[in-house]
Amino acid sequence: MEERILRWISDRLADRVASSVNFTKGADPGIFSRRVDRTALNVRVPFCRARCPFCAFPGEVYTEQYKRIYIHGLRDELRLYSEGFEGKGNRPVVERVYLSGGTPTLLYKEFGQVSGYVSEYFPFRGKIAIEAYPNDLKDEVLKALVDSGVNQVSVGVQTFNEAVLSKSLGRKGRREELTAVLRRVMDYGFEYVNIDLMFSLPNQTKEMLVEDLETAAGIGLHGISTYPLMLLHYTALAKIQSAGKGAKPRKGVAMETDGGKETEQYLAIVETLERYGYKLRTLWSFSLKPEAYEGPYEHECFIGLGPRAWGFVNDRFTLNAPSTEDYLATINEGRLPVYAFSEVRNSPLVRLARRFYYGGVNRSYLKGLEEESFWLRGLIWVLRLTGLVKWEGEELKLTKEALAYGSIATKKIASATLTKMDEILRAG
Ligand code: SF4
Question: Cβ neighbours of residue 142 under 8 Å, at least 6 residues apart?
């Protein structure tokens, strides 16, 4: 079928999924409406040493004083959640703690303290994973991570290409230094080491991207996550680029206005990493051992902790207070610092989209969805007819062509959600 029609179908599906999130401010989020047995924690560290111009969700400026009060706030927030769930009859088992950013490595001396708080308020039987800024990963920091029980590290490299890193992302870093850091991280024996790489960047060619992927694969990293640039209108980079053209940044995100460069680069990622033995874990994440890793927002339930943290509990997408000050003020009043939330319409289409994010859907799960929605049965028929999905054993899998559409659809959904989060946080 003609590419334009396929693109139209994937755009409409992405719009339907993106529209399932709509934030409301101030009302009771109803987080404790049902008992929860298992959860992950998304502990957001709200500070950054510097602000990267491309970042859609940067942290506040770091100070020692803010750090101290943030840590105390975190303990109180854990207690409030623990008491809330206790009221429903149990405290859920924490299966994973994800320290996300901002820049979590700024708190490396306090990690032991934070995991101690988790164990104080929840039964904790799981892994600790952390996002890290490459330049922070000195021996002292890595040793502190090992000592405080961190099992998994995800390093935000973005690109090894020095020119692209400085010109397009406003960051400094040399290829040799970055690879030396990653080798050092591997030497510490963490159970899983992942890196983030970006594609579809200004000044980045497919050859540069493939070189990045080959460098990462050559180090033997367990996981490689790849993200297209999301040039959201409120980021510094979008403002700089628009000013260069004498225009104001347009709301929303440019979707493939680059003559197919993004799709071409995405397919190069799939093919290159397949060649190095990496398996597709999600549309944007590839792994040598997929079963050993779960991304920060992939658990069926994750509690967002810390300023501007987001969570997903009992079908509610929650967003915490916009600043550390608001966050602490709410906690000091004995209330959860949830600033806005969205009930997520968990329609069969949304559930199918979630499965396709992992590359395919199991036959029996699909049967259940089709029984709920006749419309969905028609959609699967069209996807099969157009060659976008095919059966492999008991799994209906996205084909390579569909993976590329899926990547663009995922970008559309992520961009729309981040924009809504930014709008509601600014509305405060
Ligand atoms: S990319 Fe990371 S370090 Fe840079 S501003 Fe965003 S959260 Fe901070």
Answer: 184, 185, 188
Do 159 and 299 lie in a common domain? Answer: yes
Atom of ligand 1 nearest to the CA of 133: 3
Counting the structural domains of the chain, the total is 2
| Cα 29 to Cα 186: distance, rounded to the nearest angstrom | 41
Q: Specify the CATH number for the domain of residue 181.
A: 3.20.20.70
| pLDDT tens column, 344-390 | 888 899 899 999 999 999 999 999 999 999 989 999 999 999 889 99
Q: Which residues line ligand 1 (CB under 6 A)?
A: 48, 51-52, 55, 58-59, 101-103, 133, 156
| C-alpha span between 308 and 298 (Å, rounded) | 18
CA of 218 relative to ligand 1 center, distance in Å: 26
Alpha carbons 266 and 404: distance in angstroms, whole number: 6
Q: Please state, in angstroms and rounded to a whole number, the distance separating the CA atoms of residues 199 and 208.
A: 10
The CATH number covering residue 397 comes to: 1.10.10
CA of 133 to the centre of ligand 1 (A): 8
91 within 8 A of 61, measured Cβ to Cβ: no
CA atoms within 13 A on the CB side of 416: 18
pLDDT digits (tens, 9 = 90+) for 391-425: 999 999 999 989 999 999 999 999 999 999 999 99
Mark whether 338 and 378 lie in a shared domain.
Answer: no
**pLDDT confidence of 256, banded at 50, 70, 90?**
very low
Give the number of the atom of ligand 1 that is nearest the alpha carbon of residue 51. Answer: 5
Query: What type of residue is 212?
Result: D
Model confidence at 3, in pLDDT bands (50, 70, 90)?
confident
Q: Which of 45, 49, 55, 133 to mutate to test the pocket of ligand 1 (most atoms within 8 A of CB)?
A: 55
Q: Say if residue 256 is in the same domain as residue 361.
A: no
Burial class (CB in 10 A: 0-12, 13-18, 19+), 68: exposed
The domain of 240 spans 29-343
Give yes or no: residues 381 and 251 share one domain.
Answer: no
Cβ atoms of 209 and 161 within 8 Å: the answer is: no
- Shared domain check, 360 and 254: no
Q: Six-digit token pair at 199?
A: 């594609």
Query: In this structure, are 339 and 351 located in the same domain?
Result: no
Mark whether 3 and 34 lie in a shared domain: no
Nearest CA to ligand 1 atom 7: 102
If you take atom 4 of ligand 1, which residue's CA is the nearest one? 52
Q: Say whether both 17 and 34 belong to one domain.
A: no
